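Hi R.,

Here's the input for the adenosine monophosphate complex you asked about:
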Amino acid sequence: MVNIILLGPPGAGKGTQAKRLVDQRAMVQLSTGDMLRDAKTSGSEMGRKVAAVMDRGDLVTDEIVIGLIAEKLATPSVGGFIFDGFPRTLKQADALADLLLQSGQGLDAVIEMQVDDAALVARISGRYTCGNCGEVYHDTTRPTKAAGVCDACGSTDLRRRADDNADALRIRLMEYYKKTSPLIGYYYAKKQLTSIDGLAEMDAVAAAVAKVLDRQE
Ligand code: AMP
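And here is the predicted structure with adenosine monophosphate in place:
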């Protein structure tokens, strides 16, 4: 069992790589962004509370996301957890360390996916996903084979995120630099950080991620 964090700005490819690991290694993806979007769609009280914050591109409160993760860690994962989009603040990182400790688990590696801002804008502005299975596509670099139909599951429920627009992206990037990028130093000091080139081809990125995982097993 290996527990890892995928760290990087919006559009770095964290979700794409996490989904590959779920398919190949029976790991469990814990994406706080996906959980919050589900809450939004369900119309729950929490979903209504976070909707405007998310659409704007700001971070939701630490308490909410820590609560979501605490719930998920109660069910152990045989293959291990992939934390995708969590932690995003130092407070969340400390809370994660406590939660793992309490459940007799550890954190094995933190993989920082390095990309530059220009690439992020290009990636995010063409991005869409399958609402049914979560597969990620892009208008120019990875369109579906048949227009409007998911290659992976055949669903026609293809969606664009409300926060994948230029204004929200600017705010999401600044939130990343202000509040999340300090985690690079935090995990480097704990000797848990490996940085990889997130701009390489998707398969090359996957190989770099696999190398880090294989080192832990
Ligand atoms: P993501 O799908 O990871 O890009 O997350 C989408 C949005 O959900 C973010 O812009 C935040 O508003 C919110 N969010 C997701 N994860 C977190 C987190 N760990 N801490 C605070 N806000 C989060």
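One thing worth noting: DSSP finds nine helices and eight strands in the chain.

Cheers,
M.
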